[in-house]
Amino acid sequence: MMKGYILSVRSEFYKSRKTLGFWCSIILPFLICLLMFVAFLTHSEKMAKLPAQILWVSYANVIFGVMGKLLLPIYIIIIGYSVNSIEHRADTWKSLFSLPISKWAVYAAKYTYAVFLVFMCLMLFYLFTIGGGNLLGALKPELKFFEFHMEGFLALIYLKLFLASLGILSVQFLLSLIWADFIKPMGIGFLGTITGWILVGFNWEYSYWIPYAHPVLTTNSIFTFNKKPVAPGPLVLSVDMFTKEVFVSLALAAVFFILGFFVVQKKSVK
């Protein structure tokens, strides 16, 4: 089974190299981080007065906020559809399941590859943020990026965002297995995302049960000190990794992953 699983993962990579989902995973972090890099580069005189820690937090917070609150749910909707749409468009489910590879191996490989794309996208966000900050420090020495390091903190917040995104991914992955067209999974995903924004915006205490609210809740839980008056001195940067939304996200990911396998089991090979 493991050999079939590895072959299936490799096959997913070759099939998806020209899809929107694959290239979104690379271009999206590059463009967002590039825009932020140019903004700081062209307004360096305004940023030069900021202490090193505040400078890093300001730089990373905008990138993290745009990705977590706005783009991540939409990106995951595209990824969930993109991985399964190849089989829907080419009508290759039957030929795929007629191969001497178990349905479980094929399904697990597709899901693993979707998770990998999300992980790769967030990893690139992390690397481009760190690289952009250090490059700004080299090009504009008046920006004090070299006087503070927050690589470890940024790694933890992107890891938390990744864990909080798995619930949405599993839901969208299941929807894209059920429906071949793009409209239904996308419509449900958009509706869920907007609902999540509204519920979090109104501070509904049970919003952590809504998977589409998890990225926003995670983003809001980081850098909250920016919204409050703080005492003089350095900010305390810490990450509470396993919050309620992360636990619910992981639980929903497991439940919808299993439901997706039952959907695959019912697909005919005749």
The total beta strand count reads 0
Task: Classify the oligomer.
Answer: single chain
In which range does the helix fraction lie? over 70%
Any idea what the shape is?
A: globular
Give the number of helices.
Answer: 10
Question: Strand fraction band?
Answer: under 5%
Could you give a quick summary of the protein structure above?
It contains ten helices and no strands. It has 270 residues and is mostly helical. The chain has one domain.
Structure description:
The chain has 270 residues and is mostly helical. It has one domain (1-225, 237-266). The protein contains 10 helices and no strands. The longest helix has 39 residues, at 52-90. It is globular.
